Amino acid sequence: MILFLLLLSISFLFSYEELEKGKIRELFKKFYEGKTNDLELKVLKSYFENLNITVEDYVKLYTEGLLLEKEGKLKEAIQAYLKSIELNPYYNPSYYRFNFLIRKVENKEIYREKIRKILEKRFKEAPPVLVENPENHYVFLVEKMSQYLFVFKGKKLEGMYPVTTGMNIGDKEREGDGKTPEGVYYFTRFIPPEQLSEIYGGIAVALNYPNPYDKLLGKTGSGIWLHGSNEKDRDKLPFSTRGCVVAQTDVLKTEIVPKINLSNTLIGIYKVIPQSLEVENVKEFILSWKNAWEKKDLNRFISFYSKHFRWKGGGLKEWKDYKKRTILSKKFIKVDISNLSILAFSKLGDDEPRYYVIEFYQKYRSDTYSDEGIKRMYVVKEDGKLKVLSEEFIMKK
């Protein structure tokens, strides 16, 4: 019986069935599981060498890192991933492997300083998602790939901070999926410290997830915050939250949260912040919208709104009825716009944004009424044209 089992194991060990049947896909699976023999490895190597494609050096270094990981050489793998990121600091799977491995080695700060320098160079110029921003206005950008929060004042990088995001990679879709949502959001409220569990480090700011675009896609969930932690160096455990964005507590209290204005501070969360993007002339769109309002051209004014438009009073029909009463009853309307901020959202592989969030200071005057405050719009592309998906106004008190 023992001899039979020994012979069986030997026959299995030297089985070339996948080769004989030309099952390359099965060879990939065996390679991933570490079960390939020498001949199978040679076939795989030859297979790839015969593919008529150019493999960039950063990809070779990523592959080298994977092999070093497989051998348990974590520090060497991290070095390979860092070299890969230096060659291609934009979308690069090496970022993910770097961030997963960094928790397992000593002297983490040495490696973190290297990645920081790469990112500082990469964001020396504002990314294309930051379309417009007044010079004294703050915008926050979170990149899940690099696990960093970038703070821009105007279009200049003022600060960058390591953060940790959801334990599961990918865009949030439903309650409890352990993912951090990707999109453009604004801060809705500072959570009072006495209402927080100690795990939040006494500081948390809520985001408006799901935003109007998320709701259009049917996404669910709630309670997405930017918050601290009672754990030391919690921000240095990449991909470890239930969906929130977590930063170092003392830095959050002294450097990040003081820059947040609940009325008009946007935070964009991206898998990867794009290197290039074809953005529309959103500024011209807003000026045309303003012109139609001032000219009291109701039909043209309504044409700027999406068929999916939602506001506190209902949908597009209710909006048109409301605006018919408030526009046509006026003898004149004058609208002044200033401090325009435009942040675009896109996903990896997109040539153009999926939507924009626009904020500006609005002064409205007519013969019977006047007000001023912050106007915020979510703008999508519908049938090839920009349309307002949602709109809200925060009146100056």
Automatic annotation (TrEMBL):
- L,D-TPase catalytic domain segment(s): 138-270
UniProtKB keywords: Cell shape, Cell wall biogenesis/degradation, Peptidoglycan synthesis, TPR repeat, Transferase
User: What PROSITE patterns has UniProt attached to this entry?
Assistant: LD_TPASE, TPR
Segments annotated as TPR repeats: 58-91
Show the SMART domains listed in the entry: TPR
Which domain of life, per UniProt?
A: Bacteria
Single annotated GO MF: endopeptidase activity
InterPro entries recorded: Cds6_C, LD_TPept_cat_dom, NTF2-like_dom_sf, TPR-like_helical_dom_sf, TPR_rpt, Transpep_catalytic_dom
Q: Which pathway is it part of?
A: Cell wall biogenesis; peptidoglycan biosynthesis
Q: Which CDD domains match?
A: YkuD_like
Which BP terms in the Gene Ontology apply to this protein?
cell wall organization; peptidoglycan biosynthetic process; regulation of cell shape
Q: Where is the active site?
A: 227, 244
Q: Which family does it belong to?
A: Belongs to the YkuD family.
What name does the UniProt record give this protein?
A: L,D-TPase catalytic domain-containing protein
List the source organism. Answer: Aquifex aeolicus (strain VF5)
